[in-house]
Amino acid sequence: MFWIFLGFECIGLLFVSNFDIRISDFHSLVPGGAVTKIYWATCPQCKGEFYCHWQELRHKKIKLLCPYCNQQFLDDESPKIV
User: Fold this and answer.
1) Is 42 in contact with 79 (CB distance < 8 Å)?
2) Contact 71, 46 (CB under 8 A)
3) What pLDDT, in 10s, does the model give residues 51-76?
4) Residue 21 CB: number of other CB atoms within 10 A?
5) What is the DSSP secondary structure assignment for residue 81, as one 8-state letter?
6) What are the C-alpha distances in Å from 38 to residues 16, 34, 54?
7) What pTM was computed for the model?
8) Backbone conformation region of residue 33, classed left if phi is above 0, alpha if psi is from -120 to 50, else beta
């Protein structure tokens, strides 16, 4: 329940959502900006999308392993990186 104060009146609002709010969604509010940076890679074989740790895997010449079809490929070979 969220409360909005308008002058001397108080209105209670019930907020229902079907999504999770994570602290990483508010990276500017995290002290020191210590948020794990990720990127989404797309498998060139099955076109499945999965996320990877940016600092450990992006531009490191380490093969990624698709969790859907077990294809191994470099991030440069991915048709789409987000």
Assistant:
1) yes
2) yes
3) 999 999 999 999 999 999 999 999 99
4) 8
5) B
6) 28, 13, 5
7) 0.58
8) left
State how far the Cα of 60 lies from the Cα of 75, in Å rounded to an integer. Answer: 9
3-state SS, one letter per residue, for 56-74: HHCCCCCCEECCCCCCEEC
Q: What sign does the CA torsion over 78, 79, 81, 82 have?
A: negative
For 12, residues 6+ apart whose C-beta sits below 8 A from its C-beta are 1, 2, 3
Classified as helix, coil or strand, 51 is strand
Reading the block at residue 25, the tokens are 């969604």
User: Tokens in use for 4?
Assistant: 């909005």
Residue type, 49: E
